[in-house]
Amino acid sequence: MTFLFFTGYNMLTPILPLYITSLGASRLELGLIMATLPATSIIARLPFGALSNKMGRWPVAVSALIFQSLAYLFFYVASSVVWLYPVTVVYALAVSSFGPGAIAIALDAAPLGRKGTVMGRFYASIGAAMIVGPLVTSLLTLRFAFQLVFIFALTLPSIGLVVFLLSGLSLLRRPLLTDTVRGRGSNSVFPSLKRILLQRNIILLSASSITFFIALGAFETMFPVYAKQDLALETFQVSLLFTARGIPNALARIPAGVLSDKVGRRIPLVFSYAVTFLALLLVSLVSDLYLLMFLIGLYGLAWGARTAPTAALYSDNVSSRDTGWVSTVIWLTSDVAVALGSGLAGALAMMLPTPQILRATSLLVIVGLLGILFISEPQTRKSR
After folding, report:
1. Rounded CA gap, 195 and 285, in Å?
2. Per-residue pLDDT tens digits for 212-233
3. Cα–Cα distances in Å, from 316 out to 113, 153, 313?
4. Quick check: 80 pLDDT over 80?
5. Domains of the chain, each with CATH number or no CATH
6. Residue 359 and residue 40: Cα distance in Å, rounded?
7. CB 20 within 8 Å of CB 34
């Protein structure tokens, strides 16, 4: 289900900014619409997290597939820029409800001492989707209009729903892990978030993650339009660049998770943030398609090396009763930062060319790298 969900999501990543501008949006409007997605998720994450803890992870994850199906249908029929705002809100409800539930299911199933490995496997399904999604979009846009991409993407959550109905209904009746730990402490929203957010490691890791995702938000908002309009690339070539990002991203996730179980979380994270800065900086300086493909692939490698150690490090610092909430914090942090990055990029595009925006946001990643250096490894992980 995770693979299907994120394949559809990544089919839209290369072309959504192009589709928005094709309906007549300015670059400022592009930034605002792209920021609507994470901004809505910021509001929706906590309610969906509460529902996940109360009703179970699976019902919330399944509802996300329904929201995703509706969003793709609405994107297909949208006729003007104005319609894109409410459609993006529906799309955001899908994104905000699926991620926390899915990652909490994976963390609940992770044996002690192997969270990095399990997170690597879980995020590998997302990494595989980052290859397949843009690649399918590239093939479709060789001959067809944007609208066909939405129709094709619509089939993916539909398949997920059918598969779940055929084989997964028993999961809806499984007891929550939180039921077994509820007697050891409150599982309500604010005490749980307070326990999580007042920890030094989580504060540092969240601050570093914000710098990473501000840069990502700026890149995914402005780069497709920059590549097509300024570098004169075809739509299918823009999608291929995102495929080039997805391949090393997927390949790095499992090894990075396993490595983080053996040598600690900081080493792969330091590598990730350093390479992200270098790749984004150089992307803003070159125009050759093959160099861009290499550098964006390097960016994907750095992103893949970050995901599993980050999720595992969050989980290292909380008890099992807070697993669901820490997964919400992981996604909420990225929502806040991507919204900032998208909105900031749209505003700066009125004054600065895209390469300067990419260079400016890449410098923020260095600040995130400094935060990683101050994180201390939890002794509980080392002793397992």
Report:
1. 44
2. 999 999 999 999 999 999 999 9
3. 9, 36, 5
4. yes
5. 2-169+187-382 (1.20.1250.20)
6. 27
7. yes
Question: What is the chain's percent helix, strand, coil content, to nearest 5?
Answer: 85, 0, 15
Q: Give the position of tokens 């290499």.
A: 294
Report whether 43 contacts 51 (CB < 8 A).
no
pLDDT in tens, 237-257: 999 999 999 999 999 988 998
Q: What is the pLDDT of residues 270-327, one digit of tens each?
A: 999 999 999 999 999 999 999 999 999 999 999 999 988 998 888 787 766 666 677 7
Q: What's the gap between Cα 320 and its chain centre?
A: 23
pLDDT in tens, 23-56: 999 999 999 999 998 889 888 877 887 777 777 7
Distance (Å, rounded) from C-alpha 200 to C-alpha 196? Answer: 9
Contact 273, 224 (CB under 8 A): no
Give pLDDT tens digits for 122-140.
Answer: 878 888 898 999 999 999 9
Q: DSSP secondary structure string, 100-164? A: HHHHHHHHHHPPTT-HHHHHHHHHHHHHHHHHHHHHHHHHHHTTS-HHHHHHHHHHHHHHHHHHH
Q: How many beta carbons lie within 10 A of that of residue 176, not counting itself?
A: 19
Tokens linked to 146: 């944007």
In one-letter notation, the amino acid at residue 337 is A
The encoded tokens of residue 199 equal 């920890």
Where do we find the tokens 């605002």? 32
- DSSP-derived letter for residue 376 is P
Token representation of residue 190: 């604010």
